[in-house]
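Input (structure):
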């Protein structure tokens, strides 16, 4: 059934619940939403002094199965976001395991997961926030705030207050650009999940073709770390070497403007997944999970096709790189929805809430933790003792790998838990 037909059906269903103004006093108030996202409140009993509705004075209610459930915050999405932050903490604060570090060029490494997953979840978050329209004022404020925060992080990690060498591109800047451009595309496509999915595939394919054309004359017909086919000249021309990644000496920018096209496709893929999830909000969690798995399978099927254009490369955000992470992220969301968003007995709901509480705490303040990890990272590396030993090395020597992880990752978990317990959330 097309989207217009579905919208017409929904309006017809809404009309069957319309109550005339002079009958409003006879209708019991809607139940208050439960504070627990997985608990479905029971419908209240009708007051004793209200007579049952009859065909003569009221429109019969539609069957309960046809009434959409109220929109509730998806605990599964919070858990997914928390898993991403948790993996970030594991990789960053276990330096002796060899997990830390990105792939040198083509290929994949453990640290390559965080960024695309955060962009994917950012797209999912937009879908949850825009069920009734696009809040352009808030989106523009978020865009400006992320740009400002990104520049501040770059200053902290770089030359500090010396803005003459301030890098302009970065992680938060890419999220800001992909988010605003993605919102425009979503609005043009009227927030329809299938249309947005098609747009994500089109952007990914277009980026892959652009890379292929740019690297046609490069060795092996692929972009090279020396700068052939990487569009690094665009950043150098726009910003100058003093404000480019590594001053342009590494031949590419992992958060460059042109390669943000790959991140944009990732953002749109995340939006489409969450938009599909909300469209099926009246269906059982098993149905919603199956629909998400089908969407993830589509990205998994596209992955080998995109490999024909370029190999997996985080530093260029190639189509095969984004397709792999879109498939993985949407599949994980499907699993989280099935486990944490299903209607279950009260005791099991409570148990799942307790088990997932630390992950939800991490996920609800993901931006704070993301920035904090980068800020603390420089402190650990640049702070040295009297003997010239960096603080990170000293802590590892004094407390061991387990103690270091408890001090760092455990500290961030305690902070996130305290903020979650107090319901302090940093939202943009």
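Output (sequence):
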């Amino acid at each position: 059934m097309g989207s217009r037909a579905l919208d017409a059906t929904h309006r017809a269903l809404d009309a069957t619940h319309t109550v005339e103004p002079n009958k409003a006093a006879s209708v019991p108030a809607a139940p208050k939403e439960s504070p627990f996202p997985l608990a479905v409140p029971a419908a209240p009993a009708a007051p004793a002094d209200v007579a049952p509705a009859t065909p003569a004075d009221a429109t019969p209610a539609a069957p309960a199965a046809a009434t959409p459930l109220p929109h509730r915050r998806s605990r599964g999405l919070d858990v997914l976001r928390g898993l991403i932050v948790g993996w970030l903490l594991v990789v960053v604060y276990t330096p002796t395991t060899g997990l830390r570090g990105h792939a040198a060029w083509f290929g994949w490494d453990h640290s390559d997961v965080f960024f695309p997953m955060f962009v994917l979840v950012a797209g999912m978050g937009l879908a949850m926030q825009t069920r009734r329209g696009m809040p352009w004022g808030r989106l523009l404020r978020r865009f400006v705030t992320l740009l400002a925060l990104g520049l501040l992080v770059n200053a902290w990690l770089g030359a500090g207050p010396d803005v003459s060498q301030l890098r302009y591109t970065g992680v938060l800047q890419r999220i800001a650009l992909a988010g605003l451009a993605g919102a425009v595309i979503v609005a043009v496509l009227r927030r329809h999940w299938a249309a947005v999915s098609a747009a994500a595939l089109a952007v990914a394919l277009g980026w892959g073709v652009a890379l292929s054309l740019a690297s046609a004359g490069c060795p092996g017909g692929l972009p090279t770390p020396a700068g052939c086919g990487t569009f690094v000249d665009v950043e150098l021309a726009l910003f100058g070497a003093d404000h480019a990644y590594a001053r342009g000496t590494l031949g590419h920018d992992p958060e460059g403007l042109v390669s943000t096209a790959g991140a944009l496709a990732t953002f749109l893929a995340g939006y489409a997944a969450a938009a599909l999830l909300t469209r099926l909000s009246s269906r059982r969690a098993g149905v919603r999970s199956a629909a998400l798995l089908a969407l993830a399978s589509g990205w998994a099927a596209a992955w080998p096709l995109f490999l024909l254009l370029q190999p997996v490369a985080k530093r260029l955000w190639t189509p095969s790189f984004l397709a792999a992470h879109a498939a993985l992220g949407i599949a994980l969301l499907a699993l989280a929805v099935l486990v944490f968003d299903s209607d279950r007995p009260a005791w099991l709901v409570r148990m799942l809430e307790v088990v997932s509480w630390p992950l939800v705490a991490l996920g609800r303040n993901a931006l704070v933790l993301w920035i904090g990890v980068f800020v603390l990272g420089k402190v650990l590396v640049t702070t040295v003792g009297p003997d010239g030993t960096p603080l990170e090395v000293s802590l590892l020597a004094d407390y061991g790998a387990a103690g270091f992880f408890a001090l760092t990752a455990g500290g961030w978990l305690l902070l996130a838990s305290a903020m979650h317990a107090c319901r302090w959330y940093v939202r943009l």
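Notes: The two ends are 36 Å apart (CA to CA). Residues 107-343 form one domain.
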